[in-house]
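Course assignment 3, question 2. Fill in each field.
Student: A.L.
Task: Predict the tertiary structure for the chain below.
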Amino acid sequence: MPILLLSLLLTSAALAADYKAGVGRAVITPPGPIYLSGYGNRNRPSEGVVHDLWAKALAVEDSKGGRVVLVATDIIGLPRWLSELIAARIQKEHGLDRARLVLNSSHTHTGPLIARNLNTMFELKSEEQRAVDEYASQLADGIVQVVGAALRDLAPANLAFGNTRASFAINRRQPTPQGVRIGLHPPGPTDHDVPVLKVSGPDGKLRAVIFGYACHNTTLTGEFYQISGDYAGFAQIGIERAHPGASALFVMLCGADQNPNPRSTLELAERHGARLAAEVNRALDGRLERVRGPIRAAYQTVDLGFALHRRETFQSRLSETNAARLRHARAMLKTYDEGRPIRRYLYPVQGVHFGRDLALVALGGEVVVDYALRIKREYGASRILVAGYSNDVMSYIPSLRVLKEGGYEADGSMIYYGQPGPYDEEVEERIFSTIRQVMKRVGRSRAR
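Answer field:
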């Protein structure tokens, strides 16, 4: 083929691409034993690795140079201090505005404890704490590096979006005469949707896929001490094996009150991951809708208030026999002693829109499924991806329904996050007011 004709063909293929996209990835498996997060019954550091943990970044640039970078991490969650540190470094090194960086965590419960996250769950020895602190520093470096790699990798690409389903998530808020407990509640709300974003080169070759699911990564329970990404880790492995050279990025959706069912064995984690991977692979081979248009992004915070508490609330708990509850009471009393009792928390809401074709809503914290279902009612269930566990994981985020019902997601979990107690009853409406502001700024109108 003449060189000129080949050049024209290549140029034509590049011009046919709607975006540029780039991928970066790095192993973030801790280098040695470290306390695993998520279950307070663990009493020693990790013991080996089932498979590596990853930080993966997808950068997308529109025709006018507008960019967004999504980072998916196989960890329990990024606390605000660490997200802000990472975002500031990326803005300084790459000029990427905060609104255009999405940091999502898979919430695996067989991943490392992250410094200053779930900080009353354990009382660590000095060398154990040192391992946790050093890992946080290494994690920040790794995420900054993969974002840089993704931006350097930008090349012509096309995006397509669609949905499939997986049914192993079950609502875990089981009503009992003694109140709501963690168990199985089949009639409870779920979201079995699996959004799939396909990123291909102009030649059609798959470069990356973003997929999500609203379900805790808790197939592996507290007696497991080996590092893994749980079902989400196995799903990513399965997708990448089916598509050599492509990167699979798992995004945790609003699954705070959802558990895998059944659970508690490594074989079940592999099975759930394989089923999720099979559904994503099926979607990739099917018909997906093309995504085009400029990238718009917005990031906003809102103050969430806590229910009224007094010093006496925590003073009365000093006789607790539960170690975590006692640590929590002492920590809260310290805030009173220092004249800074915790009354509010600054909560992040982020929106990203690709033309009129796709919207991403990224919410902080462990968000219950009610939020995703309500967002889909208000903005339409198609062409939207609603993620929790994004940019900051500071606590569970209950809906008003969950807050009134009580239970772990409403109140009991707050002791592990070092928060004073449940949110007040304005929590859902304050968040939704901010969601509407953010969605308006990125150009997504409400469904009629």
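Instructor remarks: The first strand starts at residue 19 and ends at 27. Residues 126-152 form the longest helix (27 residues).
Grade: pending
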